[in-house]
Amino acid sequence: QLQLVESGGGLVQPGGSLRLSCAASRFTLDDYAIGWFRQAPGKEREGVSCISLSGSSTNYADSVKGRFTAFRDNAKNTVYLQMNSLKPEDTAVYYCARNIFSRCGSTWNARTWYNYWGQGTQVTVSS
Fold first, then answer.
1. 80 and 73 Cβ atoms separated by less than 8 Å
2. What is the pLDDT tens value at each position of the chain, 127 positions in all?
3. Residue 90 needs a FRET pair 20 to 30 A away by CA distance; which of 16, 37, 46, 72 works?
4. Residue 42 region by backbone torsions, left for phi larger than 0, else alpha for psi between -120 and 50, else beta
5. How far apart are CA 60 and CA 49, in angstroms?
6. Beta partners for 59?
7. How many Cα atoms occupy the beta-carbon half-sphere of 29 within 13 Å?
8. CA–CA dist 109, 37 (Å, integer)
């Protein structure tokens, strides 16, 4: 069974940093674009970022631009989300997901383009 596994979440103070990882099993990530999404309690799941197959193209939600960076190491079959200057409003469960395409596209944050999802990792930003 194809699997995506997120890790790296935790509790961090405002202004701190975390790096999330998304590892794949039973398929190679480097055939697909990969998205990051998050869901806060009582809110809809929203797109955070998308990174293309090659890693040369990335997209970000306006709320995280300049603070979050997605990158990938295809040799390790892993995609990362570096999160800096974290805010309490970044608190959510973060998910990675496999895009059906190799590129993210202008509607990268639409869940319809993603066919496999990880189980999520909790990120809590609090003092």
1. yes
2. 778 999 999 999 999 999 999 998 887 877 899 999 999 999 999 999 999 999 999 999 999 999 999 999 988 999 999 999 999 999 999 999 999 999 999 999 999 999 999 999 999 999 9
3. 72
4. left
5. 4
6. 50
7. 30
8. 8
